[in-house]
Amino acid sequence: MGSLTSDPAFLATTFGVIDFETTTPAGHPAQPIEVAVLALRYEQEGGWVEAGRTTSLIRPPEFAPVTSADTAQSGLSPEQFTTAPAPSEALGALDRRFAADNRYLLVAQHAATEANVIHHQREHCPRLARIDYLDTIPLAKRLVPGLENYKLDTLLAHFSIPRPADRHRAYADVDVTAQVFVRLIDAADRAGDLHDLAALVKVAGRTAKANLPTQEHLFDL
Fold first, then answer.
1. How far is CA 171 from the centre of its chain?
2. In a domain, 53, yes or no
3. Do the domain assignments include residue 100?
4. Is the pTM of this model over 0.85?
5. Number of domains making up the chain
6. Would 221 be classed as within a structural domain?
7. Do the Cβ atoms of 111 and 84 come closer than 8 Å?
8. Which pLDDT belongs to residue 45?
9. Distance (Å, whole) CA 70 – CA 166
10. In a domain, 63, yes or no
11. Of 26, 21, 46, nearest in space to 36 by CA
């Protein structure tokens, strides 16, 4: 491969491809009902290796029930959440999978969606809330110009990645997003203009909200 995947910082990073399914109650931020993460590392001798994966349903609060529209999109029904863990339990367990002394970047299709969910749930996953992101959309725009749009299904079609039957389940979307990410990194290596992790972050990086400076008010009104 090229210089990007030879960069020591790239090799030292674990890329956590993440996806949430949510409900969208009026007057409230999106509430997570399912999460999946697929961790990937690149090894110079063996290429991409899976470093772990996890998925969990998450019981929504009473003000954000699973609706018929949610069921139509994801196939998830309210009955499936009867014994699902609460956000504190599900996201707390996920948070503990991220070791304090490892270097991570989260990878997502339209990362702002995942970033908002995590930020609103940050009390349950403080370590996860401080991990920055790579967004596959700006990366794809840089490396695969000229597509009609950069939705996940469009990228799957472009890279001839089969659309999963359970599309819009977190574990399925994570799997295909990871495949898109790997294809994009391969394209970046072949193009040769993203020489290291810093260049990759400059194109596709997004700062976690917990890492942004607090805005001070100039005036108290």
1. 11
2. yes
3. yes
4. yes
5. 1
6. no
7. no
8. 87
9. 13
10. yes
11. 21
Q: Could you give the CA distance from residue 38 to residue 47 in angstroms, rounded to a whole number?
A: 16
Q: What is the pLDDT of residues 109-165, one digit of tens each?
A: 999 999 999 999 999 999 999 999 999 999 999 999 999 999 999 999 999 999 999
The confidence band for 92, taking pLDDT boundaries of 50, 70 and 90, is very high
Percent residues over pLDDT 70 in the chain:
96
With beta carbons less than 8 A apart as the criterion, state whether 38 and 181 touch: no
Element (DSSP H or E) covering residue 141 = helix 136-143
Segment 17-38 shows an average pLDDT of: 96
Distance from C-alpha of 28 to C-alpha of 34, rounded to nearest angstrom: 17
Residues 6+ away with beta carbon under 8 Å from 72 = none
Note down the domain range covering 43: 4-211
Structure tokens at 166: 């359970």
Specify the CATH number for the domain of residue 129. 3.30.420.10
Place of tokens 């290291």: 196
Whether the Cβ atoms of residue 70 and residue 33 lie closer than 8 Å to each other: yes
Tell me what the pLDDT averaged over the chain comes to.
Answer: 94
